[in-house]
Amino acid sequence: MKKITGGVTAAKGFEAAAAAAGIKYENRTDMALVYSVKPCKVAGTFTTNVVKAAPVKWDRQIVESKIKSQAVIINSGIANACTGEEGMRCCLETAKAAAEALKIPADGVLIGSTGVIGMQMPIEKLKKGIQILAKEKQSGAVAANAAAKAIMTTDTMEKEVAVTVEIGGKTVTIGGMAKGSGMIHPNMCTMLAFLTTDAVISRKALKAALCADVEETYNMISVDGDTSTNDTVLLLANGMAENPKIKEGTKEFEIFAEALHEVNETLAKKMAGDGEGATALFEVTVRGADTKEQAKTLAKSVVCSNLTKAAIAGHDANWGRILCAMGYSGAEFDPEKVDLYFKSSAGELKIIENGVALDYSEEKATEILSMPEVTAIADLGQGEETATAWGCDLTHGYIDINADYRS
User: Fold this and answer.
1) Which of 171, 179, 227, 238 could hold 40 in an S-S bridge, CB 3.0 to 4.6 Å?
2) Active-site residue among 9, 190, 217, 285?
3) pTM above threshold 0.70
């Protein structure tokens, strides 16, 4: 596997563009296009929130109907959530406008929106933006990066990645871009992720690879415990790599799934580390568990703990908060067997052994916790299973951003 540049345009046949449509923001781009020169098979996963935005409903019916797609239209600034029939009409008009501008079928145009909930979309601005996107679309890393920037809301940086692998003597590429900074919580979040591949792959295998990996990546991140109305991950495959068709249960499927995991984990960690107001990516690994589910439950409980997140922000090795979060997770374990470590680029330090604090250096612990990426490792000493969750520290910056988000 090899990491390359290019994001959503790295795979053969994919193009992208960005436009400043003035939907909510001024003096910046706020619309993006991902386009394939050939129709794509599509797999997708969506928010578990009962309140679902119009684009989520729109995309789900496309994915479930097995219609092929050639384009995704994305806007930032307004979420098109809690907008009733008008919101769905906006999706229809958006799809029709994109179909006309790009000369493709309207029934396969996918849509992504992120931003303020409850505001109606300015459809005329969207249509003008689509005209710009259609004219500006192109291949290459510059176009991919522009699209990744256009979908940002409170994100502080664009999030993109691409990898290549060899399958059947052909180079297969998977690329992607994502946005997400706040209202982020396991079971999908205010995150949009758009993945592209030129792999020849069965629809069943495409769906299986994505759905399984979402559980290990995007559903293992949390910023603030809030599950959004707009969460969407879309994976488009246009088959232009000309490899032998990838089918589920084969070695080729395993290679593809591993590459997809690299893309998804990279984007997930970028989102977690770019949490609103965050100064550090906070990673929690639970090992020595009896079952994978036990490890996942414990890791997510720690990464979601506001007290622990605040301690990370203060570079305070308050290990009691971690054990406390593990204790109320609902997972059974023996606290008197737990070993706990803190780790970062500044080193690794064992904090507790068999549930009891060691005589460790507070100064060294503070140094380790002062790095931009911090890991807590909890060893249960029970079994062989491991799971990792990702989040961020909790700072005053989170309140500053969300106290006046609508303005």
Assistant:
1) 238
2) 190
3) yes
